[in-house]
Specification:
Blueprint lengths: L1 H17 L9 H11 L6 H11 L11 H25 L6 E2 L1 H12 L5 H10 L7 E2 H9 L4 H61 L5 H60 L3 H25 L3 H29 L2 H13 L8 H24 L2 H13 L7 H25 L3 H9 L5 H13 L10 H8 L7 H7 L7 H11 L4 H7 L1 H31 L1
Antiparallel strand pairs: 1-2
Helix pairs in contact: 2-3, 3-4, 4-7, 9-15, 10-11, 11-12, 11-13, 12-13, 13-14, 13-15, 14-15, 15-19, 15-22, 16-18, 17-20, 17-22, 20-22, 21-22
Length: about 550
Amino acid sequence: MGGLLDERVVLETIFNNYDTDGKGNLSPIQMQILHGDLRMGGISLPQVMESMKYACIHGSYCEPSELYNLLQEMDRRFFLIQDFRWEFSMIDVNHKDTISQDEAQWFVQTVHGRHFSKKKWDEFVKCRPVPGSPVAFAEIEVMLCNIPNRLDLQSEKMEEEKEREDRMRRERLAEEEVARLKKKRDEERRRQDEEQKRNEELRRKRQLEDEAIVDEEDISNMEEDKEKDRERERRKQEEEERRRREEEEESERLRELEKKQREEEERRRKEEEELYKDVEKLAKDAEEKEKKTKEELDKLKNKGGSDEEAKRLRKRLQDERHRKLRYNLKVAIKSRDRYQLDYNITEFKKEKLEDTDMDLVKAEKILKELLVRDDLKRAMTKRELEELEKAINAIKKHGLEVPLAKELGEASKLLTRLKRLERIRHEILELKQATVAEIRSYQNPPAVVHKVMTATFLLLGHQEKETKIWKSVQALVGKTGKESLKRRCIECKPEKIPLAPAKRAKALLEEFDLEEVRDVSAGAATFYVWASAMIEELEDLTAQKEEAKAKAS
C-alpha cells in the first residue's frame, strides 16, 4: 500500500511540475517535453497526439489520473520507434533517410499484417505534398505504431460497400435522366422539324401559285441553302446543349468540393487549436531563453572563463535557437501568413533541422496553397482567358481543388463567361456579309429587329435618339473598315461601357427571348446574344467593384 501511495505522489509531483499554467491538465506539447526529459530524445508531437487519443478520455489533453497510462503508451511507441528505425534503415539501402512509396507500403503492411488498412494508406498517399516522392520515416512512424483495429477494418469495408452502392445508384439515376432528356429533346426536335417542313411547303406552294414559271434549278439551290442553314443551326443548338450539361456537371462537382472544403477547414481549425494553442507563448519563452544564454556566453567571454564552460553554453545556445525556430514555424502555420511562412521555412532549412513534427511539410503545403490562390486572384482580376485557364490548371495540378474550392468555383464561373464571350466574338467574326445585309435590307423592320439593333448601338456608344429612325440604323450597319459593325463588336470591351446605356439596352432586350428573335432574323439573333453577354459581363464587373469598395470602407 505504501508503494502505491509513493507512486501516486511521484506521479502527482511530476504532473504539477509540468502543469506550469495550473490548468489541471497537460497539453500535447507539455507531454512531449515531459517524456523527452524521461527518455532521451522523446517522441514526436504527432506520436504524443496519437498516444493521448488512445490513453486519454478527452484525447486532446491529459488529466492527472491518466498520466501513468499515457506514459506507458508513449514508452511503448518510444521503444517501437527504435526497432522500426533500425528496420527502416535496413530498407534504406542507399542511405538517403528515405525509401520509395512502394517500400513504405510494404513496411506498414508487414507490421500490421492482416489488419492492414488499404483505405488509410490511400488517404495518407493522397494527403502527401508531393505524391509518389520518397517517404521519410517521420511520415509513417505514427501509422507504424498505431494498433490495428479489426472493427475499424470492418467499418471501412461497410463504408466502401455503401459508397459503391450510392455510386451505382447515382450512375443509374444519371443514365435514366440522360435517356429521358434525350427522348424529350428528340421528340421536340422532330415536332419542330415537322412544323418547319409544313411551313416550308405552304410557303413554297404560295410562291408557285404567284409565279407562272419558276426555275427548278433556283428552287433546288434555295432549298439546299436553307437545309444547310438548318443543319448549322441544329449543330449549334446541340453544341450549346452539350456545353450547358458540362457546365452543370462542373458546377455540381464544385459544390461538392466547397462542401468538402468547409468540412476540411473546420477539421483543420479544431486540430490547430489543439495542436498550436500555446505556441506563441512557447516561442516567446524560447526566444527569451536564447537571449539569456547568449548574454551568459558574452559575460563568460569577457571574464575569460574556461573553454569547457564556453562550449557547454554554445551548445545550449544552439539548442535554444533550434527550439525557437521550431516554435516560430508552428506560429507561422497557425497564422497562415504568406510572408511569415516563407521566412520561417527559409530559416528552418538554413539550420538543417530534422522535421520531427512534420511542421516543415505542413508549412510548405500551406505556402504553396497561398501562392497558387494569389495567382488565381490576379488572373481573375485581369480577366484574361489564357492566364485564368493556366491558374485553374495549376490548382488541379497541385491537388488543391478542395482547400481552394470556393475560389475555384468563382474562377470557373468567370472562365465560362469569358469562353462564352470569346465564342460570341467568333460568331460575330464569322457572320456572313449577306446576313448583315439582310438586316440592312429591311425597309420597315419588325419591332424585334429594330430594338435589338438599338440595344447593340447603345452598347457601342451611340445615343438612343440616333437609332429612332431606321434609316439611321441602316447607315450605321452599312459602314465598313474600322467603323464596320462586326469590327466594333469584336473590339468592344465590357469594362468601357457606361452603366446607364447598358441598363436601357437590357430593358429593350428583356421584351424578347432568343427564340423569338431567331424566328424573325438569324442575324439579329447573333447581335441579341452578343449584347446580352456584354451586359451580363458589365454587371458582374460592377458588382465586383462595389464589393471591393465595401470591403475597403
